[in-house]
TrEMBL record:
InterPro entries from the UniProt entry: Tscrpt_reg_PadR_C, Tscrpt_reg_PadR_N, WH-like_DNA-bd_sf, WH_DNA-bd_sf
Name of the molecule in the record: Helix-turn-helix transcriptional regulator
Domain Transcription regulator PadR C-terminal stretches: 91-164
Matching Pfam families: PadR, Vir_act_alpha_C
Domain Transcription regulator PadR N-terminal per the UniProt entry, residue ranges: 7-77
SUPFAM superfamilies named among the record's database cross-references: Winged helix' DNA-binding domain
């Protein structure tokens, strides 16, 4: 997700200044994507340049409040209506690591075991976080997504282990 579209979504609820946007962005994503305040203001400047937001007057504390423009609303609606393609997602480092371990002829079992342990620990942490302090539907959806991804990773690791155990090439390398 681009920070730009996330900030537009927040601004669609009403005018805000940078620190509000940062706090609401992090709260909405369950603090899973922390933003640097510099990123927020740089993004706001670019969106202003592109006509997606307009700055208001400074308040008594020197903060500039930004509002979404019609062009910004159109950009946000375009983002909401466009599916995220698999090719637009970042590469999965774990998949690459396992593929390279297999290609290098390494014993992949310790790699899988270490990842399984780390993923299970993350899954437990996420589950506790979900039950402890979920504040609103946005945070719940983010945590649910992360839990489902961790569960899917565990299943995939099981699959990798089964495939590699059954593979004649792997059995030959392990001898």
């Amino acid at each position: 997700m681009a920070i730009r579209q996330g900030l537009l979504a927040l601004l669609s609820q009403g005018p805000r200044y940078g620190y509000q946007l940062r706090a609401e962005f992090e709260a909405s994503t369950g603090a899973t994507w922390p933003l640097n305040i510099g990123q927020v203001y740089t993004t706001l400047s670019r969106m202003e340049r592109d006509g997606l937001v307009s700055p208001g007057e400074q308040d008594d504390q020197g903060r500039v409040v930004y509002s979404i423009t019609e062009a910004g609303r159109a950009e946000m609606e375009r983002w909401f209506s466009t599916p995220v393609a698999q090719s637009d997602r970042p590469r999965d480092e774990l998949v690459i690591k396992l593929a390279m371990a297999v290609a290098a002829g390494a014993d992949v079992r310790p790699v899988i075991r270490a990842q399984r342990t780390a993923t299970m620990s993350a899954l437990q942490h996420l589950t506790r976080a979900k039950h402890a302090n979920v504040q609103g539907a946005a945070q719940r959806l983010v945590l649910d997504s992360m839990i489902f991804q961790a569960e899917a990773e565990q299943r995939w690791l099981d699959h990798c282990e089964a495939v590699l155990t059954a593979s004649p090439q792997t059995q030959e390398r392990q001898r």
